[in-house]
Amino acid sequence: MKEKLPRPSIEEIDREIERLRDQKRMHQALRWMLCSLAVVAAAAVLTVTLWMPILRITGSSMRPTLNNGELVLAVRTEHVQSGDVIAFYYDNKILIKRVIATAGQYVDIREDGTVLVDGKALDEPYLVEKSRGQCNIQLPCQVGDGELFVMGDDRAISLDSRTTAVGTVREDKVLGRILLRIWPW
Fold first, then answer.
1. pTM
2. Rounded to the nearest 10 degrees, how much is the dihedral formed by the CA atoms of 133, 116, 60, 131?
3. How much is the pLDDT for 126?
4. What mean pLDDT do residues 21-39 have?
5. Were both Cys, which of 55, 61, 93, 132 would link to 152 (CB 3.0–4.6 Å)?
6. How far apart are the first and last CA of the chain?
7. DSSP alpha helices (H): ranges in 60-121?
8. Residue 67: how many CB atoms within 10 A of its CB?
9. Peptide bond before residue 125 is cis, with ω within 30 degrees of 0
10. Cβ distance 75 to 177 under 8 Å?
């Protein structure tokens, strides 16, 4: 013989229906939250990749402004000016240097390391020590159209526009202007 199971009361049925509704609402809220997080993460990745790349400093050519191991945020821009620190593509690498002169300007470097742009000495408070460094270009030199003359802040060791190996940087090779240091604060 079959044993009869007790029938649930109306209140028990209502509680079970409400529990199932709550469970369904919870699953919907969780799905909505996960979809929202995925959209925000995708937007953040696209923003960082396309507009604001994050770069790690390797080497010491920008000391004391930027040091080995630091993370910086670059902003893509079409307009850079003298004094800006930029990231640019060079020989399948990304280099970070300071813009010294732009198209049409004349650059000269004295033996003591003083940099002249259009005959005027640059005020460079970011330097610890002036140095002519490695320089095998003909000075004074004029920066060509669509090009930038760049130098590292640690002039004694920086490989930059003072050498024919790097030379002036074409503006279309600029990845972006360094906006801020992310790590360490």
1. 0.77
2. 40
3. 93
4. 94
5. 61
6. 78
7. none
8. 13
9. no
10. yes
